[in-house]
Design a protein that fits this description.
The protein is of the alpha/beta class. Helix content is 33%, strand content 26%. It has two domains: 1-82 and 157-167 and 188-236, 3-Layer(aba) Sandwich (Rossmann fold), CATH 3.40.50; 89-156, no CATH class. The N and C termini lie far apart (43 Å).
């Protein structure tokens, strides 16, 4: 029997008040792969991540982490079980240094090479010189890298990234892309992005949302070869 996906979302329905935001979203993230969650602004990308984590509890559907049903569990339990979320607004601790931000996020390793502050500084060269600087003194791009590094120090099973390239300088976007590339094959990533060019370049598979529904799911090659999907759902 094959191993279950690292993360599976089945027929997820999420409401904000009476607004039916997610209407039966299903997707899988397999071990070691990067899945891009694409679509225009308001398509439901962030809500899908929030629904998976438990911040937006679904009215129907299921969320499975490594084959185990985590639907409806408190967020802190899902985090300890291995779901790590990097929100668009980063939410670092501005009064702590870069190194302290990493230290407070550490959770026990789940096997393999653990993420520690020292590993972060080796693999995030732009953060290494800033280890003693307070989070509030960092640029927006530096804060984004710190937010991702902090999530990794929790040694997660799956990493959820919400619009990580939004508003960042090209140098930081390039560094961010290199980080995601290095994670391939070792850590499953669900990457919600409006910047389709950035996300498609990094992903193994893509899922395209429109108005809370899945309009396309396929490999990177299939996504790049479909002009209708490119033009209708991904162009600015």
């Amino acid at each position: 029997m094959s191993a279950p996906p690292a993360l599976e979302v089945r027929d997820l329905h999420v409401y904000y008040g009476e607004s039916h935001v997610l209407q039966g979203v299903s997707l899988t993230v397999r071990e070691g792969e990067v899945v891009a969650l694409l679509g225009r602004n308001g398509a439901g990308k962030t809500t899908t991540l929030r629904g998976a984590l438990g911040l937006a509890p679904p009215r129907a559907g299921r969320v499975l982490l490594g084959g185990h049903d985590v639907t409806g569990r408190p967020v802190h339990e899902n985090v300890r079980a291995g779901l790590a979320w990097v929100p668009e607004d980063r939410r670092i601790f501005p009064g702590l240094t870069v190194e302290e931000n990493l230290e407070v996020a550490m959770l026990p390793p789940r096997g393999g090479r653990p993420w520690t502050p020292e590993r972060v500084f080796a693999e995030f060269p732009l953060l290494a010189p800033l280890r003693r600087r307070r989070g509030g003194a960092l640029s927006g791009g530096q804060q984004q890298l710190l937010a991702i590094a902090r999530a990794l120090c929790g040694n997660p099973r799956v990493l959820l990234l919400d619009e990580p390239s939004e508003g960042l300088a090209p140098l930081i976007v390039r560094e961010l892309g290199e980080v995601v590339q290095r994670l391939k094959g070792t850590l499953p990533v669900l990457l919600a992005e409006q910047n389709a060019r950035f996300a498609v370049r990094l992903c193994d598979r893509g899922v395209v949302l429109e108005k809370g529904q899945v309009r396309f799911e396929g490999t990177r090659a299939e996504l790049e070869a479909d002009p209708e999907i490119q033009g209708r759902y991904l162009s600015v």
